[in-house]
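Hey all, quick one. A colleague (J.T.) asked me to put the FNR job into the tracker so the inputs and the structure tokens live in one place instead of scattered across chat threads. No bug as far as I know, just bookkeeping. Sequence used:
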Amino acid sequence: MNPVLAELHDKARAVLDPVHYDFFAGGVGDEVVLAENEAAFRRRALLPRVLRGIEVRQDFPVLISPTAFHKLAHPDGELATARAAGTTTLVSSMASTVPIAEVVAAASGPVWFQLYVQPDPAVTEALVRRAERAGCAALVVTADSPVFGRHRRDLAHGFHDLPAGLAAENMRDLTGPGLRTIEMSPAVSWGHLDRLREMTALPLWVKGILHPADAVLAVEHGVAGIVVSNHGGRQLDLVPAALDALPAVADAVAGRVPVVLDGGVRGGGDIAVALALGASAVGIGRPVLWGLAADGEQGVRRVLDVLHDEFLHVLTLCGGELSRDVVVARC
Ligand code: FNR
């Protein structure tokens, strides 16, 4: 792990209520996948090309992945994250503790809205309209959550609700006065995705794809992009590391839409490995939360800056261009 990210993690753990730290840090089941997401990067090595004479000029291929409840990390919550994002795309969680309109207003770069399709179509449509009115540039439908993941740390703490004064603000007054809770539904299908495409002109991404056949279906259903993700090890503790699922998905998609990888990215070298294995960009979840908890807006900015700097450094050392042959197994 990049040492700055490690330092921010340690500071976050020291300042956070242990119950909230565990909510952010934890995964599902035995947390096998949580550990595997990071371990999968350590199983790879980079085989650099040399003497290519390429000076690296490359956009920062990173998005901020959607994570819930930023006010548990810092009183400014998603406002701090949005201010820190700069030109980096912020995928704002439907479960944010700041309403999406305020998140977009605080950001200077693109904000995408992450959506869990709700069992009541009127609620889903109201959320989409909120995202459109706020000025979001895309919708990201999370597909890996037909039910809530069972997080042992949260169950052990009895943590299942936000403290008084905090709420999932995007759910406020949706069909009547008051708050609705976010629901997960196993009834959500590709048909819902089709209806969303008819409902809105926003580009539609799907997040939480692991099987190459689902990647093909997503392309056939007209998505603008795919996020290969196991939800940061928070849904099913039997799946592969996100990185291990990436190459087959990238092959199946064959460049028709961009493929983003999230899960376990903890340094600039990890970004390079993911790009070499077929990702157009990576998403980062927990490191942003650690930066936010440790030092608010400044902390999130540090996370992004250090990843950017390290990525460019690694890319230069790899000869400026990445392709699958520069990644080998670490024996
Ligand atoms: C998440 N993630 C997530 N995903 C999503 O689509 N909607 C959400 O509301 C949340 N909420 C959430 C909360 C917390 C605390 C975590 C850690 C994660 C999953 C997230 O978008 C992403 O897939 C992972 O966090 C990526 O893994 P890393 O970078 O945390 O290893």
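Adding what we noticed when we looked at it: The CA atoms of residues 2 and 267 lie 5 Å apart. The two ends are 19 Å apart (CA to CA).
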